[in-house]
Design brief:
The protein is elongated. Strand 13 and strand 14 (188-195) form a beta hairpin. The strands form four sheets. The protein has a six-stranded mixed beta sheet. A five-stranded mixed beta sheet has the order 13-14-15-16-17. Strands 5-4-7-8 form a four-stranded antiparallel beta sheet, with no helix packed on it. The protein contains five helices and 17 strands. With 263 residues, it is mostly beta strands. It has two domains: 3-148, no CATH class; 166-256, GMP Synthetase, Chain A, domain 3, CATH 3.30.300.250.
């Protein structure tokens, strides 16, 4: 991991580019941010873990929470609720994005796992200190900490081998996923099987879908890598292998890891 001594700027009053500091030894960090949009802008996105508030998140703001390595579920709730699951490794920096849409009586907050570039390509204000919990970094801590060189390393320190519990995650996913299961591109998954740290999918293209080729492949990769039930496998060092059928015949296959999913 490449570290610099240059400051990581953060300000409550002015939007600035933010360089995320390296996590403390043995710890991980999650960067929560909320883009500036008009819809739902009057409603704050309050992030919690196990019923304990982490911080609220107004538009165009961010906060960084220091977390233990391991499994975490972060939630937001108002008229509706939403959650993300993260299985953090020591040294990892994960990113999560919140947005709020208008509901019938109140806002409907939504959390999504995000890419590093979605945060580092924009300028942000930090969350007011009155809104943050005990494990959220203050502006002073962000400025004082050593930082990772932007773009020079991955968003986390990848372990040399898959974490031991990735096999459990793969096994659990294969056991609990409904059959059939339809992805957001219309592809249907008929079978889930676990093989060590690899989840094997048997899929079929939807009726009327384009013939298997680069366009269909790109859509399937995006659908799998953005699926909440599947992305933790690739994100935590596992592999997803999908065999694609059309018209009763096998027409192709994709193998997805952290790299292919851009995680």
């Amino acid at each position: 991991m490449t570290l610099l001594s240059s400051p990581a700027y953060a300000s409550v009053s002015e939007k600035e580019p933010v360089t995320v500091p390296a996590p403390p030894p043995g710890k991980a960090e999650v960067v929560f941010f909320r883009p500036s949009t008009f819809e739902g802008s009057a409603i704050s996105c309050a992030v919690s873990e196990n019923g304990t508030k982490v911080s609220s998140l107004p538009p165009a703001r961010f906060f960084i929470v220091v977390a233990d390595a391991g499994r975490h579920t972060y939630s937001v709730a108002s008229e509706a609720s939403d959650s993300i699951f993260l299985n953090l490794s020591p040294g990892q920096i994960a990113y999560a994005k919140c947005h709020v849409s208008l509901g019938i009586f109140a806002g409907r907050p939504k959390l999504d796992v995000a890419q590093e570039e979605e945060f580092t390509s924009k300028t942000w204000k930090s969350v007011d200190p009155s809104r943050i919990g005990p494990n959220v970094l203050t502006d002073e801590q962000i400025r004082a900490a050593p930082t990772m060189m932007p773009g020079s390393v991955a968003a986390y320190a990848a372990p040399a081998a898959p974490p031991p519990d990735i096999i459990q995650i793969v096994q659990h996913t294969a056991e609990v996923m409904p059959r059939p299961y339809t992805l957001n591109d219309g592809t249907t998954i008929d079978s889930f099987a676990a093989s060590g740290n690899t989840l094997v999918l048997i899929t079929r293209l939807s009726t009327g879908a384009p013939a298997w080729g680069d366009t269909a492949k790109a859509a399937l990769v995006k659908a799998i890598c953005s699926n909440r039930a599947l992305y933790p496998i690739a994100g935590q060092g596992g592999t997803i292998v999908a065999t694609i059928a059309s018209g009763g015949k096998s027409v192709g296959a994709v193998t997805l890891t952290r790299r292919e999913c851009g995680l």
